Every structure is written in structure tokens, then in C-alpha cells.
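subagent[fold] <- orchestrator: predict structure for attached chain, return C-alpha cells only, no commentary.
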Amino acid sequence: MFLVKQTFLETLRTCPLFREVSNDDLQIIADDYASLTVSEKNSVIFSETQYEKALMILLKGRATVTKNGGSGKILMSVLEKGDIFGMAALFYEDEPFLTEITALDKVTMLMISKENLKKIFVRWPVVSENYITILSEKIHFLNRKISTYTKGDTLRKVASFLLQYTDAGTKTATLPYSMTDMADALNTGRASVYRAFDALENDGIIKRSGRSVAILDFAALQNI
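subagent[fold] -> orchestrator:
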């Protein structure tokens, strides 16, 4: 038994890929079908020229997902403990890895090779169902992100961005990264993003406290 992996089982239990997988079966998957890998802070984990046909699950630390844009790299998202990457490229042979994954901290990851993932699908069909569900959710997320980028001004971009990250139950959006990184993600200037937030607050649509944004007028935010 690979005892080191036991310290990360709690993270794997919360991973949507293993929804409805028993603790005993999860231990088998971790021990027999996966391996641990570590990347140092600021190192590139995956890129267009450096990647493996493997599924990666972040167990410790954070990593950024960036994509080359017209004026440099665009921040797509920040990966946290329990997040998965490598899914889109795993079963598609014709394109390189389209984004770059860089370690923000020293990160520990669980790596499952393409061949081992196929074996997991056969032995635990629920994992394949979860995999399809996650891919579907990613498609919807990317469609919303495309909609954000195509909006004509910063105010509408910020409004769409907030809607993406709003919890329907609490009507609160939690910003996944800093205002500077958010400006990069929206491909706009930081000052413009600050002005957009100020305008939304002055109109009584939102109230911001650090990275937590209370949505006071959901309908107004949707109609911007």
C-alpha cells in the first residue's frame, strides 16, 4: 500500500470524478491505478510542448491556467485543491495541449494515465459517468466565458464574470483571484475593472468586501 496517498484520500473523496465511489474502492484506485507527482513553485506542469496523456488531480497547492492571447498570456482560471486538469486533451490526438498549467506553490498531484483511466472506467462505470458530467459542465462554463469575452465593454464583462461565480443560494460571488488577475482574464485594464466595480456599487447592484461580492440586485446585474 502506498501510505503517502492516505493523507490525500479526503481530497479525493470530495473530487467530483469519484462521486459515489466507496472509500475502499477509492483506496484501490489511488494505490493501484495512480501515482503521486510533485512540481516546484513557478514550474510549468503542462504546456503545448510539455504534457502527458494523463489525468491530473491537484492534491496540495495551487496552479494557474493561462492561454496565449494577442497581447500576452490570458489567465483562464486558478486551480485549487481537488481540481482536475488534462481532461480535454486526454482522448483527443489531433491537437496539442492548448493551455499552460503553472504551479503557484509547490504542488502535489495524483496522476492517472490514459490507459489506467480506461481500466478504471471498466471496473467502476460510475467514474466514466462522472467524467462525462464534468466535461459537460466544462463546456457550459467555457460557453459562458466566451460570452463574457465577446461583450462590448468592461462593465458588461465584469457583470457576466460575477454571474459566473455567483452562488444561487447565497446570491454571493466569490472572486477566484485578484483584481489584477481578473483584469488579465477579461483582457482589459485594471483601472477599468475597478471603475466597473465602483459603478455597480454606486448603483446599488453589488456590495464588495475583499473577494466576496454580495449581489444586491440580481436582475439588474443580468440586464447589463
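orchestrator: received. Logging for downstream: The chain has two domains: 3-139, 151-222. Residues 3-139 form a domain with the Jelly Rolls fold (CATH 2.60.120.10).
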